Amino acid sequence: MHSQGHGVVRDDVEALAWYRKAADAGYAAGEVNVGDMCACGSGTRLDYKQAMSWYRKAADQADAVAQDHTGNMYARGWGVAQSKAEALTWFRKAAAKV
């Protein structure tokens, strides 16, 4: 609600706090959302390494969105050493879920 401003004033810092609670509880969607905010610098400073860390936590839980994001991070070399082979591995994992 806070990230989109639905029913409340849009507030990225507040949204991140709620996403973080979900992520800290091991909820994959929360981990992806925290990763997204780190990757965009929304509610926090831009930090690709931190984003990648959150994406990998969710990807390791077999979350297809996180696996796709992990592949993108490897493809671009954001927060990790660029690796087309590693990117392809993660893209294939994500695609297998669709």
How would you describe the overall organization of this protein?
The chain has helices at 12-24, 28-40, 48-59, 64-76, 84-95. With 98 residues, it is an all-alpha fold. Helix 1 (12-24) packs antiparallel against helix 2 and helix 2 (28-40) runs antiparallel to helix 3. The longest helix has 13 residues, at 12-24. The radius of gyration is 14 Å and the shape is globular.
Quick summary of this structure?
This protein is mostly helical and 98 residues long. The chain has helices spanning 12-24, 28-40, 48-59, 64-76, 84-95.
Brief descriptors of the model:
98 residues, mainly alpha, 5 helices
Poorly predicted tracts of residues: none
Helical fraction: 55-70%
Mean pLDDT value: 94
- DSSP strand tally: 0
Write the layout of secondary structure elements.
Blueprint: H1 12-24, H2 28-40, H3 48-59, H4 64-76, H5 84-95
